[in-house]
């Protein structure tokens, strides 16, 4: 049976005859989506402040994951990766900014896309050399939680990941509101030139923004290391997911980011169950195309376009 | 000036025709160079002339490759059984079957991507700037992932192409045959684009790049021209894909057909290296890039993608104008630009 037609039959089966599977997929999706929202938050931050789109976002995530995996290999519990990984990744991000990104900040957006694409290929390959091309996972041994008399199972690692993501996101929002650097970042996002005139060192703000973004990716990556699998070449789907979440939610709309992240997670789990795992990544990319084209038709009624 | 051009074109044509006999060892390499030039030139129709930076032309490359392969096989044998047989050859094409299938496949490999470009063009080309870039990037990768899930064309395992018929000649003849097909393709692409850029079509593309809203306000149906431009690209890229599949002899969805990280980026890089928005830029860029690449691939075996990543960053960040742009700045007179000396001296750099 061709997969799509099979999918329609299967969906019918799923919704009316297998409510348990529905609950399972929805819960999995929501927990996954919270993690995506954390990555998307970093994307929105750098996009809003520096006006660059970072294709290497997914590679930063995977790099953070490999830090947790490395800790697991040396015998430390990978759960501590959520503390170590962001610290290392902050400096990686800072260094990356000083090396390359500062030269593309004021330029055309396509230049930043292409330059970060180059960084993404480079880091993929370096990770392949260092950690090998095998699919790896860091065992957390957190066990699983059973719901509804054991009909729905949730790994505790996923719940842990969602809680940590929420804590980090709330912490960052508070930091942005209260601290001096946070205020400087928000001022630069509003008007870089005016901020410069008023004595904000925008260069430092940009570097810090990119570093914070990389640190968020580090947290998300170390959570992915314990809940899912790592592989040097799976970075790009994370970039596309976060891009998609940001364009659906809009820049600077934090509840929107969280909601659309969860929506994407649920969509992905359902696509996985209905179409099959081999079409999972493909369906994510197709969703991106559909969302962009849908918004383009909606805007073109008013003779506007996405910009 | 006119005479010089004639000598240049004649010289290049003669070089192209005799090259396989002067450098017999590099026949296949030069064939790949012609394919790369076609990819760079057709990318430049969008990226350079029209100002729409696409990552999605690789979609047409892969579609052309699969269409060509399925036609070649499906015209004579059941495709599903061929795929199932995999490496073991239970079906063998005779020579007339091979060539019939090959040319029919190439024609379809041009037409079907063109039709696809026409169908999806209205939706996709309405996006602008980086949204267009990301959307087309997603399109190319989605196509690769979906092709990797379709059983009849080999799914993730890939599809072997029909082998060169045994009784008409050895592999030398095979590479000469493919060499001349590739050369014909590159000449056709060059002549067609040179002609197209000299017509109103080229002017409209440049107008879209410079200011699309104004072009629309002048009464040009920009969408129509954008779609036609994409269809032209898709036609040539599709044929290039079909040829590439036959030359490689084996199609795999992510590494060969919808190879975003290799050919998909190469075509962007070659056009930028040579100089976006010029006729000769992509040709020069592709030639330099091919030389660089072969050097890397031979001497830095295993590190080639690291070198590629560094190369992308260096070219994009430090050399975005390309070779033609650099030449233009250095010798503006050669490009027909008149510069007033007094004006140039009076310029003040604001910093």
Explained architecture:
The complex is a heterodimer of chains A (307) and B (351). Chain A is mainly α and 307 residues long. Chain A has one domain: ABC transporter involved in vitamin B12 uptake, BtuC (Orthogonal Bundle). Chain A contains twelve helices and two strands. Chain A is globular, with a radius of gyration of 20 Å. The termini of chain A are far apart. Chain B has 351 residues and is mostly helical. Chain B has one domain. Chain B has a two-stranded antiparallel sheet. In chain B, helix 2 (27-50) crosses helix 8 (200-210). Chain B starts with a helix and ends in a 5-residue tail after the last helix. The A-B interface holds A 3, 53, 100, 103-104, 107, 109-111, 113-115, 117-126, 236, 240, 243, 247, 276, 278-279, 281-282, 285-286, 288-289, 292-293, 296-297, 300, 305-307 and B 53, 123-124, 126-131, 133-135, 137-139, 141-142, 144-146, 148-149, 155-156, 261, 265, 268, 272, 303, 305-306, 308-313, 316-318, 320.
Q: Helix fraction of chain B?
A: over 70%
The helix-strand sequence of chain A is: HHHHHEEHHHHHHH
CATH hierarchy: architecture of chain A? Orthogonal Bundle
Task: Give the tally of β-strands of chain A.
Answer: 2
The percent range for strand residues of chain A is under 5%
What radius of gyration of chain B results from the CA coordinates? 21 Å
- On the 0 to 100 scale, the average pLDDT of chain B is 84
Secondary structure category of chain A: mainly alpha
N→C terminal distance of chain B: 40 Å
Number of helices of chain A: 12
Low-confidence spans of chain B = none
Structural class by helix and strand composition of chain B: mainly alpha
Largest interface, counted by CB within 8 Å of the partner chain's CB: A-B, 43 and 41 residues
Into how many domains do the coordinates of chain A divide?
1
Quickly count the helices of chain B.
16
Shape of chain B: globular
> What is the radius of gyration of chain A?
20 Å
Q: What spatial order of strands do you see in the largest sheet of chain A?
A: 1-2
Unreliably modeled segments of chain A: none
